[in-house]
Design goal:
The protein has helices at 12-22, 26-31, 38-55, 59-72, 76-95, 102-115, 123-136, 141-157, 161-177, 181-198, 204-212, 219-233, 242-245. With 255 residues, it is mainly alpha-helical. α3 (38-55) packs antiparallel against α4 (59-72).
């Protein structure tokens, strides 16, 4: 969930990878990268792990790419980044009930925390993922909020707008559960704004639906209809959004 999008000064390869990634073409994006260096191998693993989160598929491909990244990692930062991806993939498998890997997720993220220095560029993403585990596996909203806030500050300091959109979104989700509607609406709106500015299409539909949950009619329906349009455009990705986008009285499997 980390990345800057593209600018005119970006490396053409990274621009192509970003454009494919943002349109849910993770396998095509990964195919552009040759895992000859730790950085390229880790980026491939990250792309394929993100695919798992959005499609609930491709687990073996992600595992293979991650093993390659782990084998090539040499420095503490590289080993820490690989451990962070290992924890994220284990978290995803647990979240979608593919296999209970909660202990592995916590252990891998703990190992990453020991390897990645507090002020390093990779630390905010690690903090965010530890927040995900706290929120969705440990069911500890207070620990999740603290981790998201650290990630939010780090994403701001390191100019990582995509990660910033994720921290806005998850902090807003916690606020909504506590009945803080104004705070939640602001956070969801900021998350959506950033994703639209970056052109991160695959993450825009979930952001639209989340913001709709804080709005009144007719704005809520307008936002959900826009989310449905993007969902269909991207071939039904993310898969877990399907049921929330189904019109009342419609079977989610045929929506």
């Amino acid at each position: 969930m980390s990345g800057d999008g593209t600018t005119a000064e970006d490396d053409p390869l990274q621009t192509a990878v970003w454009r494919l990634r943002s349109r849910a073409c993770w396998v095509d994006a990964a195919s552009l990268l040759t895992p000859a260096t730790p950085q390229a191998a880790l980026q491939r693993a990250s792309l394929l792990a993100e695919r798992c989160l959005y499609t609930e598929a491709g687990w073996e491909d992600a595992e293979d790419a991650l093993r390659t990244a782990e084998a090539l990692a040499y420095t503490d930062d590289e080993r820490g980044a690989a451990a962070c991806e290992r924890g994220y993939l284990a978290y995803a498998a647990t979240l979608f009930q593919i296999r209970d890997r909660a202990d592995e997720a916590r252990a891998a993220l703990g190992r990453a925390a020991a390897l990645i220095a507090p002020g390093a560029p990779g630390r905010p993403l690690l903090d965010f993922r530890r927040g995900l585990v706290a929120e969705n596996l440990t069911r500890s909203p207070q620990a999740a909020r603290a981790a998201y806030r650290r990630a939010h500050a780090g994403a701001t300091a390191h100019a990582d707008p995509l990660l910033l959109s994720a921290t806005w979104r998850h902090l807003a989700g916690l606020a909504l559960r506590e009945g803080e509607l104004t705070e939640a609406r602001h956070g969801f709106a900021e998350s959506l704004r950033i994703r639209e500015e970056l052109g991160y299409l695959v993450g825009t539909a979930p952001a639209l639906v989340s913001l709709a949950d804080t709005e009144t009619e007719p704005e809520a329906s307008r936002l959900r209809e826009e989310a449905r349009r993007l969902f269909r455009l991207l071939g039904g990705v993310p898969t877990w959004l399907s049921q929330r986008l189904s019109p009342p009285g419609t079977d989610a499997a045929t929506a």
